Structure formats: C-alpha cells, structure tokens
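Key idea: predict the complex, not the pieces.
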Amino acid sequence: MPKIAVVYHSGYGHTQRMAQAVAEGAGADLLAIDADGNLPEGGWETLAAADAIILGSPTYMGSVSWQFKKFVDASSKPWYTQAWKDKLFAGFTNSASLNGDKSSTLTYMFTLAMQHGGIWVSQGVLPSNSKAAQRNDANYLGSYSGAMAQSPSDAGAAEMAAGDLENARKLGQRVVEVAGKFNR
Amino acid sequence: MPKIAVVYHSGYGHTQRMAQAVAEGAGADLLAIDADGNLPEGGWETLAAADAIILGSPTYMGSVSWQFKKFVDASSKPWYTQAWKDKLFAGFTNSASLNGDKSSTLTYMFTLAMQHGGIWVSQGVLPSNSKAAQRNDANYLGSYSGAMAQSPSDAGAAEMAAGDLENARKLGQRVVEVAGKFNR
Amino acid sequence: MPKIAVVYHSGYGHTQRMAQAVAEGAGADLLAIDADGNLPEGGWETLAAADAIILGSPTYMGSVSWQFKKFVDASSKPWYTQAWKDKLFAGFTNSASLNGDKSSTLTYMFTLAMQHGGIWVSQGVLPSNSKAAQRNDANYLGSYSGAMAQSPSDAGAAEMAAGDLENARKLGQRVVEVAGKFNR
Amino acid sequence: MPKIAVVYHSGYGHTQRMAQAVAEGAGADLLAIDADGNLPEGGWETLAAADAIILGSPTYMGSVSWQFKKFVDASSKPWYTQAWKDKLFAGFTNSASLNGDKSSTLTYMFTLAMQHGGIWVSQGVLPSNSKAAQRNDANYLGSYSGAMAQSPSDAGAAEMAAGDLENARKLGQRVVEVAGKFNR
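Result:
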C-alpha cells in the first residue's frame, strides 16, 4: 500500500473536517499543524516516508494561513536536498465565499510542490454545473486543481456541505489510486 | 467625464450581457471582439482615447477565449510604446461552474494590464457569504479582483443571475468613480 | 516505451527549438500548431494515444499565444468526456525577458492540465543561482513548474542559450522517466 | 503630499535594502515586520493613514515569508470594515533565482490588495531585454506587476545589483506620483 500523509492547518475546524475526509479516502496519516505553525512530533519523518503528501489549509486573506506557511518555510530543509522529489502532491482548502480566492491557495500549493520536484494530482471530478446541480453534489464548487469547500462565514464546522466533504474524500481516494499505479 | 471603454468577447451571449451591465454602470463605450478575434472599426482609437479599459471574456478551458487572446496579442503594438500606460483597468468573466477557474482569467487580465503599465481597480464589493446569502445578491460568488458571473452549462444568456449582473454594473460604476478622482 | 507528444506553437522559431530539445529528451512526437491555431492532420489522434502531453508556447503579453489558446479551446472536446484524464502533462515557454511573465504561462498550462484531469510533472532541476552560476547552466533561469528559455528581443532562434535548451531536454527526459514508472 | 507606507519583512537584509530604495523613491515611512511577524508600535495606525501601501517580502518557497503572512492574516481586521478600500497598493520581492517564483509572490500581494478593495499600481518600466542589456539596468529581470530583485544564494545584502535597487526606487517614485494624481 502506498503511504499517504495529509498535512494541514485548521483555524476553526472546517479544514480539519476536510482533512479527515481526505484521509479517509486515502487511508492516510493525519498531521495537524498547530496554532504556532509546528508539526506534531515525528511529523517530518512521516512526510519523508510518504509516497504522496496532501496539503490542506484554510484560505485566509487570499492564500494559506501563516501557520501553514511557517510549516512550508521549514520545508526548505528537505527542499535543499530535494528529499521530496518525485512524491505525489495534492491540495485542499476551505473558505467562507464560493470563490474567495481559494484558487489562489491551491495554485500556491502547486507552486510549492513544484519547488520540491513533485508531481501534482488533479481533483479529477467534473464540476456539477447544470441547472439541476445541487449544493450537496460532489464538486458543486467547480474546482479542478484540488478540493474546495465553502462554509458560510457564520457556519460552524458541523454545518459543512456534504458534497464538499464527499469531494474531499474523492481527492484522497484518487491520490491513493494514482500512487498505487506509480512505481517510485 | 472620464472615457471608459469595455472591450470583450462573448461566445454565447452571457459575457455580452455582463459587458452591457458593466457599460451601463460606467457610461462606457462597448467594443465587441468578433468570432475571428478582431475589433470593430475604430476600436483601437477608442481604446487609445480611453481613461479606463474594462476587459471581458468568457472563461474557456481555464482562461480567456482565443478570440480575446488574439486581441491581446495585437495589443503588443500599443504595448511597444507603452501607449496605454497609466490607464485604469478592470475585468469580468463568466463560466458555467461556480469557480471553474474564473480566478485564473481575472488574474491573467491583471497580468496583461501590468504589461501595459496600467493601474488595476478591484471589484470593491464584499462577498455575500453568510448563511442568509441569496443567489441574487451582488458578489454572491465572492470575487475581489473583478466581476464574476456563473451561468449553468445548460442556461441561456436570458437566464443569468440578477446579482451577477448587478455586480457587473457595480464594477462599471466603481471604475468610472475611480477614474473621476484620478487626474491623468 | 511510453508515448509522449509535444504540442507547441512557435512564432519566430525559439519555442520550436525548445520543442525539439524536449522531444529529443523524451523520444516524443512533435505536433506543431500552425499560424492559424490548427493541429497537423492526425494531431488529435496522437494526443489521444499519448501517455504524456508536453505543452509549449511562447509567452506573448503574459500568457500563451492566441494560436496555442485556439488549440486549447478546441480541446474542450476531449475535456467533455475527460478523454485525457490521468495523462501526464508538463510545459515549456520562451520569452524575451528573464521573467516576462513566463511563470504566468506555465501556471496557465497547469490550470489547463487540471481541467483535463491530468497529472503535472515538475522540471525537477534545482536552479543554478549561486554567484558562480553561468548563463549556460541548466535552469539558470530558476524555474520549477516547467522549462523556461529567455531569448533577447533582438536575438534569433539560432542564438538561444545552450543551458535553456539543455534544460528543455532534461524536461523531456524527466517526463519519459516518470511516464515509465507510471502504470496507467 | 500623499502619505506612503512601505511594510515589509526581511530575513537576511536583501528585502530591507529594497524597502529602503522604495521608501527613498516614495518619500515613505518604513514599517519592518519583525522575526515573529509583528508590526512595530504605531504600525497599524500608519497603515490606516496611508494613501498608498507598498508591500515587500522575500520569496520563500514560492510566496511571501510566514512572518509577512502573519501580518497579512492580522490585516483581516481592517479588511472586515474595508478600512483600506481605495488605497493604492504595490509590491516588491527578492529571491536567489532569476525567476524562483517571485511572480507568485507579487501575484499574491495583488490578490491581497484586491481583498482590501485596493487599486494596484504596476512597475511601469519596460524590461531591459535586448542583447545589449546589462545586469545593472533597471528592470533587467523583466517584471511588470512590481519590483523584483535577485541576489545569488551566497551573496550578502551588500552585494545586491544596483539596477534592482534602482528599479525598486523607481517603483516608490511611481507610486507617489500616481498617488499625487489621485484625489481620494
């Protein structure tokens, strides 16, 4: 079985629920970045051993949270030796608006993966965008480069859209499937 | 009164309705790029004389249509002498999905405006993103860098969301207001 | 052997030289988009059969040329059935300036590959960026998401930097190697 | 006279030199974000009073430093009331590679400015990109959306390219000129 790691920061619990859905789909280890931007003990070792790293962050002010970025800046150490080269990468994010620059966050995660010499896996689910589309459809938000969730500004993590979480689960599932076909 | 030009391409009429709403808000001239990527006669002169240029295109396969890009490539002539320097710019786009990489289109329009030495004006309307938000609210889609509209894949131009068109009108209004305060 | 296709547009021959270098590295078929934005006969079939598609375009006014975009817009047909899903993708571009928004072009190619349900392969060569760096080093330009070449505004295709072409060759080589490890 | 504020983070002194050059060009106040991501005392008040805010950060791992992002996340307070609406914004960045994803950093700063309802000012200097171009020319790096500097990985802040600093000074000068024509 490929080893998949989900590394994420969550401010208010929404991105955490996405992370759990992704991890469920991927059979992945979960690594939560804390409120100071630090990984749990053993986190760097888990990432070093992973075949695929799935990145998760809320979109705050148009990009990843500073805590997530602090983790990223610390990843300059494996970058220096290209220790993560050829790993698969994917990403997910949550914000309050339907767009709200979530695309900026996912594109940044891609940029990061490229610096690490990685290979980026798309969401792989066509948007649900006909007149008959329902809020709880998978990929109702219409994202291609990773999984998006949208949670109204006054909605708690318990109120997240089922389709957004299903889409996150599908991303995890897709990454583990692609990893299974890729003989690193 | 500042002179505002709206230059746009529309494949199926949705972006045209946005263009009309923007032009109504801005008191602007409308320049439609045709199916071969050409401006109407006098188009380049209108753009040369404009204080602000508002760019509109559908999002096709993640960016502006090829017809819009053909117009853009032809704008290398004013670029060469920086003839459009210090003009105000803004942008709008329509696609079938809620996200659907509309953000990529707007960011590209910004990139273009920067090449021309321009000044980019934001949408300036906070997203409507609480639980009480309605599809017909202005900026329900939650865009900051320009105006977005979303029209389901099987919906004609007549069926566009009123809030998306209102948001487009607001963008036009904002550009003319900013232009009025800017003594070029 | 994996089948690799290089599909590109070149206005003045620089991007063509890159395409040839990429194809040499990858053992790939070359598909040149013509001055009207059309593929050669059999082009769509070659793309359909490819394990990996490598995209090439000059950077004109901050993104791919309109001819390349016309090809892209026509790719909405395979997009509709996700016929290119799980293919590997990579990209390359040339422009006159060291930056000159080449990054915008490569990021757009990534966005396109994501719409097609693809998997994106990085350049995988660390930048040559110490004080001892030479113009002819591979990845002297410091790109991660694909191959960049820079050709002064008054330099013909014959005068391209050897290191830029070597970097393009390396991208082709990398894509064929990754494709060889990926059991589609 | 318009009030211009330069807010920046610098890890090793290179971005600080850029900030000083920008501030010299603009006649601006300098606000240094510290190693913990905090503004100096009175910093938020200076930003609130500014007609234009010029943003500066090194490019670390493809975007702004985490310290800069921590400042950004704290700017959600003025965002909430759109207190910075209609301010002018511009940006600058330094990294070790000629490209090195500096464009990603500047595009992110633009994204941020849009969230604040701002107006973004371009660099406004054509690239020096002919065969006769010299490393010390202003805009030798060929950036349009803001000022870029490139400092080899083993070069101290004292060794920065004069043209990069001149370009930074020009950005400051441009922002104060545009601000002078804009009657907020």
